[in-house]
Task: inverse folding
């Protein structure tokens, strides 16, 4: 039985690509690459497991966050419309898939790419570039657009029946929707979802972070996904939780090098000032942000808890430290 290593995001196209090959009796090991920029990662992984169990293929989740972070800072082939380095990202994934294919002795690689669907990364010349960079030309099959592309090695030697592949192209997904119905795939993520780096607002936050912080790490990226973000000056940023989920994530991600501020006598946000040099003025400023977004916004004062290092104390936030807060917000 031929063994295929499939790049698998869990999106509609990658699901259809895998199912197309499964219907030919091909064994599939699907690789999901966690770059830290997938939308709703934990929910996505749950969905991936459900699909793999339902249709009967193996699933392997690979964390490439650190590798991808290096690419993100300086992509060889640039960014797309926002902060998405799609060509470099796909080359990275294909190289990892190539290594895994060689490790387990699989026969070829498949992707869910559709010719002409993405202006930056899904074009004939880019497909050729990727194969050249990865060094496995002729062993990357794109089942959804295969009939529009030259036959690959697995097709020529009879591992894959080319006549049972597809000739889909372009940005419209009408053919994919019909195919999903035929395959009984009635539960898949919104095609417009996926990578946060294609989102204009998130990209703005990331671009701003890279401008002011040279040693960006994975925690910085996780913090970008939550709360409201404000820039006070070159070295000082404030993050304000928008809801209980944000507040919980801030608590999980904070370190003793951060200033953490929480309302004590009203409902309100958890505030984080990452890796800040503590000062009374900065604490009162952070407390004013906490007050502004709390249920006590219209009061004269509210009491907040301030944590820094191993210390914890109470502070009374008041209107005298109120700033033009919206002025500092990082937004589109």
Result:
């Amino acid at each position: 039985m031929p063994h295929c290593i499939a790049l698998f995001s869990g999106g509609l196209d990658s699901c259809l690509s895998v199912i197309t090959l499964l219907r030919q009796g091909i064994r599939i090991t699907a690789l999901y690459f966690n770059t830290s920029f997938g939308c709703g990662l934990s929910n996505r992984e749950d969905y991936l497991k459900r699909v793999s169990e339902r249709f009967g293929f193996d699933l392997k989740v690979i964390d490439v966050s650190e590798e991808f972070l290096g690419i993100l800072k300086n992509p060889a082939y640039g960014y797309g419309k926002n902060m998405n380095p799609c060509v470099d990202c796909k080359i990275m994934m294909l190289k990892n898939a190539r290594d895994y294919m060689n490790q387990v002795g699989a026969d070829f690689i498949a992707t869910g790419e559709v010719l002409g669907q993405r202006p930056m990364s899904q074009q004939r010349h880019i497909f050729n570039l990727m194969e050249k960079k990865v060094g496995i030309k002729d062993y990357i099959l794109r089942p959804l657009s295969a009939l529009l592309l030259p036959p690959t090695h697995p097709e020529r030697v009879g591992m894959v029946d080319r006549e049972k592949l597809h000739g889909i192209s372009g940005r419209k997904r009408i053919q994919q929707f019909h195919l999903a119905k035929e395959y009984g795939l009635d539960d898949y993520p919104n095609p417009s979802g996926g990578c946060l780096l294609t989102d204009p607002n998130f990209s703005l936050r990331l671009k701003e972070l890279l401008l002011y912080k040279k040693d960006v790490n994975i925690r910085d990226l996780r913090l970008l996904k939550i709360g409201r973000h404000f820039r006070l000056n070159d070295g000082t940023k404030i993050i304000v939780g928008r809801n209980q989920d944000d507040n919980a994530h801030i608590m999980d991600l904070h370190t003793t090098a951060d200033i953490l501020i929480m309302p004590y006598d009203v409902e309100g946000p958890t505030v984080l000032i990452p890796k800040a040099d503590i000062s009374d003025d900065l604490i009162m400023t952070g407390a004013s942000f906490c007050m502004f977004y709390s249920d006590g916004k219209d009061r004269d004062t509210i009491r907040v808890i301030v944590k820094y290092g191993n210390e914890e104390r109470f502070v009374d936030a008041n209107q005298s430290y109120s700033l033009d807060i919206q002025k500092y917000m990082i937004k589109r």
Notes: Residues 86-104 form the longest helix (19 residues). The chain is about 35% helix and 20% strand. Residues 231 and 237 are 5 Å apart (CA to CA).
